[in-house]
Structure formats: C-alpha cells, structure tokens
Design goal:
- By secondary structure, the protein is α/β, with parallel strands linked by helices.
- It folds into three domains: 76 residues, Arc Repressor Mutant, subunit A, CATH 1.10.10; 118 residues, Response regulator (Rossmann fold, 3-Layer(aba) Sandwich), CATH 3.40.50; 137 residues, Response regulator (Rossmann fold), CATH 3.40.50.2300.
- Helices cover 36% and strands 15% of the residues.
- It contains eleven helices and 13 strands.
- Strands 9-8-10-11-12-13 form a six-stranded mixed beta sheet, with helices on one face.
- The protein is elongated.
- The N terminus is likely disordered.
Length: 376
C-alpha cells in the first residue's frame, strides 16, 4: 500500500484517539494484509500533521488492542485482527436491522427487543441500533463497518441476515467480535443462529392441514437452496410423510426475485393453474403474502379463494389486509423468548463462558379462517 492512499479524516476527538480510530478503520477494511509493515511514525506524522508523540500513542493503542505488533528496530506490523476488550462494566450491544424492518414497530422486532432487555436486566447493558440501507452494497458495507468501528460494541446481533450479507459478516468475523444472526446460516460464515424450531414448525403446519383434509400442499418460498427455506421445506416434508400430506418439487414456487406485486400475483396464478390438485398454500417467503393479497383482489381470484393459507411469520415485513374478510392463519416464533435467547447466548460469548444451554423455541399457530376444510 502506498502512503498517498492513506487518507485520514481528522475529527475533534483527542488527537491520538482520532488517529487510532481512522487507522483502525483501514485495518478492518483490509487496506493492509496480515503481516504487512505499517507506515512509520515519521510517515504518519507528515500525513496527519501531528507530533511524533501523538502518532506513537495512537500506534501503541492499536498495539494494545491486538491490531498491530511492534518489532524492535523494525516498526509496526499488522496482526490478525482482534476485537479490543471492553474494560468498563457496561456492555455495548449493537443490533443490525434490515432496510424493510421498522425499528419502532412493536409487533415483531419490538417483541424481540423486549426479550433481549429481559435477559439483560441487571447486567448494565446499552443496546443501540443500526438500520441497513438499500444503497449500493459497497457503500452500505463501508457505512456499517465505520459504524461498528466508531461504536466498538462488545457484541453484534444481526437480524434476518441474508446470503448477500456474507462479505461484510466475514469482515466483521475477522475482527473476532461476538456475532449472532437470526433465522438462517450464511454459507462460509461460522456464527451462531437463533431461530424457532424447524421440526416443531413442520409438525404444527402439516398436522393442521391434515386435520382439515389437505393432502397436496404448495409452498411459496424464496430460493429453495437458501438455508432458511431449505430447513423449513425439509421439516414440512418430514412431518407430512407419515400423515400422507405431500410436498414435491413441483409444489415449490420460488418468489424471491419478483419485481412487484402484480408480477408475483401473475406467477402465483400460473402456478395454481398448473397444479390444480393443490388445496393449501404455506407462505414461507414474507413478501409473497402481498402477491397472495393482490391475486385475491384480481379477476383471477377464483383460482385461490378456496385454498387454505398458512403464513409463516419470518420477519418484520408488514402484513397486508387480506380481502374477502379473511383472517390469516399464521405461525409465529415465540418472539420474546427468542430475544431472551439471543441475549443469553451473546452475553455468554462476550464473557467467554460455557454455561449457556440452548432453549427450544417452539413456534405458535394462530388458526384464522384462511385455514379451511379441503373441498377435494
């Protein structure tokens, strides 16, 4: 790395702390490779217009945090990133929210936060939030990394991580900061996942459909190879097999990359026309419920009106009003308990303890009038 690419933005923090913060961002952003020699005190003094003493204090701080290694007579070298330990009593937790989640809503994310606070009672915690934007991936990653490095939290909770978040999760993981995600595993990222029990979900849904006389089920999902949908579909098939309730590959409709509600409604109508033996739909993919609502309001609504519908509440996506006075049957994770589990697990990781025992998170079925008797 040439020194002329080392752009340092000076802020009104104490000078050596500000310099350390900017250098920390560059290290975390992989502007230097592991083992690479760091710019010298003299070079950094010229670049920052600060005294050698101030620059030396910044480098010593990064050395103390485990980001740099001082070699006598040679200078400083980049070490494998280690997240600095918090020596204060208060623990700072940063929650990362996706763009579609309203941090102020109370029915989904708010209940998870409530559970997190319950588990954190009496533990001197500070929980702050950062909502991802729909901006260009590179800019969004840089903005988030800057936020993490500025706040220096003791632990991260990443809500509803998706495969597209892999790169930034890998970069954060390299800092050895404790991270927990919800709902799905991300390929190549070894972090704990907190979610409700898939087997219990499959049993709840398929037993309810069997009780109402259904034997051929359609599933509206995102990419079936995505960890979340793969586990859910597998659980549905496993539970349905002994009950005689069938899901085959033709019964799966991937609606994960649909441009708008009308396009989704058209795809859904075509799917149901090709699979007229399907008498019930399990909606795994959040936005697909909007496509269902759109189809129910269209001239082609007859193709879906008599189907049973069960909606899997995956995240905080708003649920549209369903026409024809239909009350949606839903399966929802135990959100408050999920929040408690997240916080218990994260605190055990921060404290490096082994006394954490996972608690099964059993989802709850609310049987609205979209769960109806099969006419076949």
């Amino acid at each position: 790395m040439s020194l002329n690419t080392l752009a340092l933005e000076m802020n009104p923090d104490p000078f050596y702390i500000d310099i350390a913060k900017q250098l920390r961002k560059l290290i975390a952003g992989r502007r230097f490779s592991h083992g690479q020699r760091f710019p010298t005190i003299r070079q950094l003094t010229r670049k920052t217009n600060k005294s050698p003493t101030t620059v030396r204090k910044a480098l010593q701080l990064l050395e103390k945090e485990g980001l740099l290694e001082a070699r006598h007579g040679s200078g400083y070298y980049v070490k494998k990133a280690q997240w600095p330990k918090n020596n204060t009593q208060q623990k700072n937790i940063l929650a990362i929210l996706p763009p579609f989640t309203d941090p102020n809503e109370s029915w989904y994310t708010g209940k998870i936060f409530e559970g997190m606070l319950v588990s954190g009672t009496g533990k001197n915690l500070k929980i702050s939030f950062c909502q991802l934007s729909d901006a260009d991936d590179n800019r969004a990653e840089k903005s988030l990394l800057d936020k993490v490095l500025a706040d220096m939290p003791d632990g991260l909770v990443w809500f509803h991580a998706k495969t597209g978040d892999r790169n930034i999760l890998v970069r954060l993981k390299e800092l050895n900061i404790p991270i927990i995600t919800t709902m799905r595993k991300i390929p190549g990222v070894d972090v704990p996942v907190v979610k409700d029990d898939d087997i219990a979900f499959g049993f709840l849904v398929m037993s309810a459909l069997k009780t109402h006389g259904h034997s051929n089920i359609g599933v509206l999902c995102g990419n079936p190879e995505d960890d979340y949908y793969c586990q859910r579909i597998s659980a549905l098939r496993q539970a349905g097999l002994p009950l005689g309730v069938n899901i085959n590959d033709k019964s799966l409709l991937d609606l994960g990359n649909v441009e708008n509600a009308q396009a989704g409604a058209n795809l859904l109508a075509g799917f149901l026309e090709e699979n007229r033996d399907i008498t019930a739909l399990v909606v795994l993919h959040s936005y697909s419920i909007h496509y269902v609502a759109k189809l129910l309001c269209s001239p082609r609504s007859g193709i879906i009106q008599n189907k049973s519908l069960i909606y899997n509440v995956l995240d905080g996506v708003s649920i549209p009003s369903i026409p024809h006075k239909l009350e949606l049957a839903t399966v929802t994770p135990p959100l408050k308990k999920m929040g408690e589990e997240i916080m218990r697990k994260l605190l055990s990781m921060i404290d490096n303890t082994t006394d954490f025992t996972p608690t099964p998170l059993i989802p709850e079925l609310k049987a609205g009038n979209t769960l109806k008797q099969s006419r076949h």
